[in-house]
Amino acid sequence: MSGQVIFESENHKVVLFEELTPASAVQANQYLIIHNGEGMLLDPGGHKVFSQLKRDISAHLPPNKLRYIFLSHQDPDIVAALNGWLLTTNAEAYISKLWLRFLPHFGLEKNFEERVKPIEDKGTRLDLNGCELLILPAHFLHSPGNFQVYDTCSKILFSGDLGASLNQPYFFVENFEEHIKYMEGFHKRYMASNKVLKLWANMVRKLDIEIMAPQHGAIFKGKELVNKFIEWAENLKCGVDLMNEDIYSIP
Length: 251
Hints:
The chain is an alpha/beta fold.
């Protein structure tokens, strides 16, 4: 069966799909949450992965049982194939209200627009056939309209680009200190500022997180690793913190 199951109980399952991205593109993870026979697909990706991902998902869930599509932000590695998913399923898609009017540029057909729902800045809660999913604000990490998902049944935080790593030779983090070198450059450039990282850390510490699953790279499994990441992020200088007149100069 395609996909790697990272959580499973009697009525709940979370599946990771992580080897579908073409070699010339940034590696991306797709996740499927299933509860009592209904599903949410997170950050489904671009056109190049659509056909294979749809086949792989079908091994776990009939496409007509896909209830939600979650789009953490507007990047093409997340939303480019949205029209295909709306065409071949009955799912509703959720994205920040900031990006609704940008989706037609990815080929979203007019008759599907009513199935794309805006998320207000403070986030929301969704019911997946009896399992509550928290849609958490993560603005400027890295997008101005950015959200994460906390699955209350599996205690997994799907963190989008936050926690992403590049070119690491493993898929589950074991040594956090060794793992920093695969995250640091990306976070310093793509995350907006330490201020928002501190706000995020203060928010997620109120949750019971067993796994943190980013959209790129390795997964943090276990409270110890998750807490180490939160502490690292909370103290990271990044984005505008690092900008100076050497960069803001006429070339």
